[in-house]
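Input/output pair, single chain:
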Amino acid sequence: MKKKRVLVWLSWWVDSAVTAYLLQKEGYEVCAWFMKNYISEEENCPTKEDRDEAIKVASFLGIKTFIIFDFREEYNKKVVDYIYDGYKSWITPNPDILCNSEIKFKLFLEKAMELWFDYIATGHYARIEETGLQYRLLKWIDETKDQSYFLSWLNQFQLSKSLFPIWWIKKTEVRKIAEEIWLPNAKRKDSQWICFVWKVDMHKFLEKKIPTEIGNIVDTSGHILGQHKWAWYYTIGQRKWIEIWWWPALFVIKKDVEKNEIIVWNENELELYSNSLTASKWHWIWDKLSFPIEWSVKVRYRQSDQEVEMFDLWNDRIEAKFKEAQRAITSGQTIALYIWDMLVGSWTID
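Output:
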């Protein structure tokens, strides 16, 4: 029987390398691909370094076909412009979710199908399960690292053509496998930055197209504590970039658009918490459910499941009322709906 052909997204990260290795063991014909999405000589951009290391990993695993796709133009239009437009509109965009749905699992998937591959594969920590004629997106076995939230905009076709081979292995075991077979990237740390531009300084990145304007940092009583470069750099609940040395940890409570001010106080400030939100731009992965809905949601990555009751408003907008008040609900982020461990739908928080 002819082997199934799989095109694996191979980066310098250990997850994708172990993904390729496991697929080889399962008998797939494995080829590798790398996406050139963002290159900047002005910033600490790791694209070239990552490409070279990915080639080393492919060579180590004996993968003979290594394809480089240049998606810089599409990435700039779909992801980079989305980031700038989001901050200009005083919301906090989520480029990782958009990058997955529009670049990795759409643009790249289309290219893979054109090249007659049966599947694409990535090192995401999530599960795909076929049930009859539908596909379910499920949480990973280790919820502390589960990445299903970042995949919440995928559709049935994308799930049907995708493989997540490390769905059954905990992170410690992934590292162990990498070390046992002497993968060259076995000890590399995980990325914590924007999709494909993980080392770029966010301030410098935004200042390219958003001019700075000095504003005040004030407490909840209106007292000026310091200054910032521009309020739209900040998100609700943020601590980073608030440098007021004589104060303990301060967090962004809210932003005043007209005054270009950010209001800060300690983490227990009641204004930082809310019992409800509204959201729009619905996306159903599974069958659309009837409202009202009583299940659980996440409003950010790595958040534990939160009990919620959701109501249908109008024009595909919903209202979510939480059993417990939620910290730092942020406009522009995604609220993902789960039934037990299955992600069924998502909306953009208004």
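The first strand starts at residue 5 and ends at 9. The mean pLDDT is 89.
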